Amino acid sequence: MAGGGFVSSAGIKQYAGRMTGFVIITCIMAASGGLIFGYDIGISGGVTSMDDFLSRFFPAVYDKEIVGEEDGNEYCKFDSQILTTFTSSLYVAGLLASFVASTITRLHGRKPSMLLGGTSFLIGAAINGAAMNVAMLIIGRILLGVGVGFANQSVPVYLSEMAPAKYRGALNIMFQLAITIGILAANLINYGTGKVTPWGWRLSLGLAAIPAAIMTLGSALLPDTPNSMIERGEHENGRTMLRKIRGVDDVDAEYDDIVQASEAARQVEHPWRNILQRRYRPHLVMAIMIPLFQQLTGINSIMFYAPVLFKTLGFTSDASLYSSVITGIVNVLATIVSLVLVDRIGRRTLFLEAGVQMFISQVVIGGILGAKFGLMGTGSIDKMSAVIVVVVVCVYVSAFGWSWGPLGWLVPSEIFPLEIRSAGQAINVSVNLFFTFVIAQAFLAMLCHFKFGIFLFFAGWVVIMSLFVYFFLPETKNVPIEEMDCVWRAHPCWGRFIPSPDQERKDLELSM
């Protein structure tokens, strides 16, 4: 093969290069885009459990909580579609924004998408912090959603393209690590601002400007990826950047493969149409099923509404916020575990182990709530049982933190060929945000009607997604991003969809 690489014993190309300080710094800066998503996930549940916020914007919910309507049904205290619209409106906006971000990412590079995302989030944070009515809250949330859509579309792709193949998992997981840090920071802020009466909620919402400013400034300073430069015809700049991020002069093998992928991409005038082709069937299935399953783990139900959930269990406001801080810390630590292990033991092992752990946790939580509150939700929970629930929630969060949390972003970002990468990532983000919206909008109503069965519902989905991983997801660790077809071609199910290299060359010649 060309200089600057070799073929491994598994028949997969490996490129020359090493982990450079430049790559580490740029990936850390890019991964900071996850802070805005994480901060929003963490801040929403805390704010919606603050009495000052509820009494000002959602008095009906406040009255239900204080007066104790719904015949004392503990499961239904916070069931309000207007309240959940405050949380979930962001994700509808993010879904729509991801399609616009896809075009900008493909035509102008990954960097402009991150810059636009940070700016939009910054404006949204300012509006929410100054909100005087529900309309201002929703407008602010929509702008936050645009920021999240742009960031989630561009950052994982940026990280996967900058990283050397053997470290791609760890570097990409820094995005999820930033999300978990954002969640933890939001939980800590909520715990502090919850004591500031009557405007602590303004601090919580307005301080979202800090992670937004970090992302905006960081993206303005970032270079673009070699893949993006070459895709846009900047070949020499792309080669120079490739040498810089790999730390070696001989990058011919990787450069040639990126150029070849770019030429194939240039022949694709309609990536949205092409991704429906038979050869991209496994990529399309993963772009839909992985983000769908990530949301059906039930994690965002826990993270969005952890303070509300714990308050429903009988915790005081302070105790509920404190419990959500604990889950936030567990989430950060578990993501670090994934960062260390993902390129060593692989994606599949983490997915499958976590499936068992999450299933058991959900069944235990549902069992305790069923035993204590009963079908009517009129019982009560003792202190020891409440502590057990918090512990088991932490066990569940830790499993998610080293599996579906980071890998739900990593795997889709690394499997798409360049010619459909922007479209594939847009589908991944839009599916993720759509079902995040659905779960956020439906969770409190589901908790009210399913009662403790809501956790058994998610446990059932964990079984289904674990079987899907076992039978349909190949291992992608240490495989160069432009060599991923080798993995699909060797898979017993997906191999029949992927043409041989000779057939690919013939197809490319016929299209030129």
TrEMBL record:
<keyword id="KW-0762">Sugar transport</keyword>
<feature type="transmembrane region" description="Helical">
    <location>
        <begin position="284"/>
        <end position="308"/>
    </location>
</feature>
<dbReference type="Pfam" id="PF00083">
    <property type="entry name" value="Sugar_tr"/>
</dbReference>
<dbReference type="InterPro" id="IPR003663">
    <property type="entry name" value="Sugar/inositol_transpt"/>
</dbReference>
<feature type="transmembrane region" description="Helical">
    <location>
        <begin position="385"/>
        <end position="405"/>
    </location>
</feature>
<keyword id="KW-1133">Transmembrane helix</keyword>
<comment type="similarity">
    <text>Belongs to the major facilitator superfamily. Sugar transporter (TC 2.A.1.1) family.</text>
</comment>
<dbReference type="GO" id="GO:0015145">
    <property type="term" value="F:monosaccharide transmembrane transporter activity"/>
</dbReference>
<feature type="transmembrane region" description="Helical">
    <location>
        <begin position="171"/>
        <end position="189"/>
    </location>
</feature>
<feature type="transmembrane region" description="Helical">
    <location>
        <begin position="82"/>
        <end position="101"/>
    </location>
</feature>
<feature type="transmembrane region" description="Helical">
    <location>
        <begin position="21"/>
        <end position="39"/>
    </location>
</feature>
<feature type="transmembrane region" description="Helical">
    <location>
        <begin position="354"/>
        <end position="373"/>
    </location>
</feature>
<dbReference type="InterPro" id="IPR005828">
    <property type="entry name" value="MFS_sugar_transport-like"/>
</dbReference>
<feature type="domain" description="Major facilitator superfamily (MFS) profile">
    <location>
        <begin position="26"/>
        <end position="477"/>
    </location>
</feature>
<keyword id="KW-0812">Transmembrane</keyword>
<feature type="transmembrane region" description="Helical">
    <location>
        <begin position="426"/>
        <end position="446"/>
    </location>
</feature>
<dbReference type="InterPro" id="IPR005829">
    <property type="entry name" value="Sugar_transporter_CS"/>
</dbReference>
<dbReference type="InterPro" id="IPR020846">
    <property type="entry name" value="MFS_dom"/>
</dbReference>
<feature type="transmembrane region" description="Helical">
    <location>
        <begin position="138"/>
        <end position="159"/>
    </location>
</feature>
<dbReference type="GO" id="GO:0015293">
    <property type="term" value="F:symporter activity"/>
</dbReference>
<feature type="transmembrane region" description="Helical">
    <location>
        <begin position="201"/>
        <end position="222"/>
    </location>
</feature>
<dbReference type="InterPro" id="IPR045262">
    <property type="entry name" value="STP/PLT_plant"/>
</dbReference>
<feature type="transmembrane region" description="Helical">
    <location>
        <begin position="452"/>
        <end position="473"/>
    </location>
</feature>
<dbReference type="InterPro" id="IPR044778">
    <property type="entry name" value="MFS_STP/MST-like_plant"/>
</dbReference>
<dbReference type="InterPro" id="IPR036259">
    <property type="entry name" value="MFS_trans_sf"/>
</dbReference>
<keyword id="KW-0813">Transport</keyword>
<feature type="transmembrane region" description="Helical">
    <location>
        <begin position="320"/>
        <end position="342"/>
    </location>
</feature>
<protein>
    <recommendedName>
        <fullName>Major facilitator superfamily (MFS) profile domain-containing protein</fullName>
    </recommendedName>
</protein>
<dbReference type="GO" id="GO:0016020">
    <property type="term" value="C:membrane"/>
</dbReference>
<keyword id="KW-0769">Symport</keyword>
<keyword id="KW-0472">Membrane</keyword>
<feature type="transmembrane region" description="Helical">
    <location>
        <begin position="113"/>
        <end position="132"/>
    </location>
</feature>
